[in-house]
Amino acid sequence: MATNPDAEIDHEGPVTPYRQLAEILKARIARGDWADGRPIPSENGLVQEYGIARSTVRRAIAVLVEEGVVWTVQGRGTYVGQPPEE
């Protein structure tokens, strides 16, 4: 099921907000909003944009990290794709 990258979080729907956000972010990445290796908006930016709690954003990002869609650097941000080889 494809998610609309411009969707809003439905707090009354059957899917948890963090799962909705994870799907929206994946759709935005697929659409090309953020290129491979480029950062996605900060946690605070996503909190403001979607009107959700920071813990919800963190859970969504954790899902995307687990799925290999993004990677994080503590204190620096979350980036699209896989981390560069060191």
Tag the structure with descriptive keywords.
86 residues; two-stranded antiparallel sheet
Detailed description of the structure:
It is a single chain. Strands 1-2 form a two-stranded antiparallel ribbon. The longest helix is centred in the first third of the chain and has 15 residues. It is 42% helix and 9% strand. It is mostly helical. The model has no long low-confidence stretch (mean pLDDT 93). The N and C termini lie far apart (36 Å). The chain contains three helices and two strands; from the N terminus they run αααββ. Strand 1 and strand 2 form a beta hairpin.
Architecture blueprint of SSEs:
Elements: H1 17-31, H2 43-50, H3 54-66, E1 70-73, E2 77-80
Antiparallel strand pairs: 1-2
Helix pairs in contact: 1-3, 2-3
